[in-house]
Amino acid sequence: MNRPVNFIAALYLASSCLCFCGCESSRSQVLATHESQVKLRSMQSRVFDTTDKIETLRTAMATLQDLGFVIDKADDVLGSVSATKLDRYAVRITINVRPRNETQMFVRANAQYNLKAIEDPEPYQQFFAAFEKAMFLTAHDIE
Amino acid sequence: MRRVCMCFFLLIPFVLIFQGCGGIPRDALSMNKATLEDRQLQTRVFDTSDESKTLSASAGVLQDLGFNLDESETDLGLIVVSKDRDATEAGQVFLSVMVAALGGTQAVYDTTQKIRVSLVTSPVGENGDRTAVRVTFQRIIWNNYGQVSGREKLNDPKMYQEFFDKLSKAVFLEAHGV
Fold first, then answer.
1. What is the CATH number of the domain that holds B110?
2. Are B47 and B53 in contact (CB under 8 A)?
């Protein structure tokens, strides 16, 4: 009477094992990305027609505060700002600002949502929409 | 009881499969209706062009409130501070112990919290003759098992009001060398 039940249980266990044996070691996360390097850079980066690095960094901090972030770190020499937003979830973001040429500034943002990298263009578009409003400048895509 | 246990075990792989789903909320990185309100709540403008003095007065107030300095960058007008404090609330402990006693489980309640603050100053006005100070608070809460039980931004208007009252006093004292 118990035979079909045992059989189903065994089948279930076997399929569960198969499900998990394909899993990778958690160490593979160290250098893991899902998107190509070029695609990531293009969705995370914009170019602004300004040469003022300090003002760009200050605007980045103001935008982050507008979006509900608390700033973690900032460095004007390196041109970076990191911040965290907590709202039941956690979003961590780093903004990097560096001169691109004589007239332009290159701004890159990369973020993670809880335990995952954000590799979807939409959140970055939203961030840069808020950022360009605060900069009073248009954000150009990188060519 | 046996059936309940079986259902529970059958559900585990599905939970494991689906826990990775669910992306970033739509408004996490965009401005919304509350943005302007929050900005007003979190910002005060002082009639001084001396940004570094305002920053050091702010650091003094945060120290008065028991915060420790984590990070500072005067060229960008930034101070980041935090403090670890008790988060135990008698009501929550009582309720949790009662529920645990009735259900025969372990009581879970909040025990510690980390409060984080970032404060940013920036020159405003036509010639940068005034200084704006914007401060944002957030906290992370842990329960008695050391697990994160809550993380939130702190947006109580009273809290900001009180902070800026203290800061106004400090800016005045600093200006008069007290």
1. 3.30.530.50
2. no
- Residues from chain B contacting residue A123 (CB–CB below 8 Å): 24, 28-29
Number of domains in chain B: 1
Whether residue B74 lies inside any domain: the answer is: yes
Checking ipTM against 0.95, whether it exceeds it is no
Contact A123 B28 (CB under 8 A): yes
Residue B50 falls within a domain, yes or no? yes
Which pTM was predicted?
Answer: 0.82
The CATH number covering residue A123 comes to 3.30.530.50
pLDDT tens-digit map of B130-157: 999 999 999 999 999 999 999 999 999 9
Look at A70 and B35 and tell me if their CB atoms are within 8 Å.
Answer: no
**Burial environment of residue A33 by CB neighbours within 10 A (0 to 12, 13 to 18, 19 or more):** exposed
Q: Which residues of A touch B77 (CB under 8 A)?
A: 58
How many beta-carbon pairs under 8 angstroms link A with B? 113
Please give the Cα distance from B60 to B104 (Å, whole number).
49
